[in-house]
Amino acid sequence: MKKMLLSVFVLVGIVVIARPAFADDTEALYKSKCQVCHGPDGKGSAAGQKLGVKDFHSAEVQKETDDALIKSTKEGKGKMPKYEGKLTDDQIKDLIKYIRAMK
Question: For residue 42, what is the domain's CATH number?
Fold first, then answer.
């Protein structure tokens, strides 16, 4: 029983330590690839608003499926460039989770 309890504590410790690194990597990726148009808060920078970017907080964006957002990110949409080949599938999925958390 003590070994099992110790294992649980070790596993929780690893998750707690690893989680901020994941969040930091995704946040840095957002800042380097998305923030220039979508703004630091996902509501759109001044330049992005002129291009017609969508507010990530909006019901319109939040109701989009993950698959639709992944497709838009990979293939581009409107004036948004495509990121297929520039970002991995995992990076794109992490960015989708990141923008979902902005609501």
Answer: 1.10.760.10
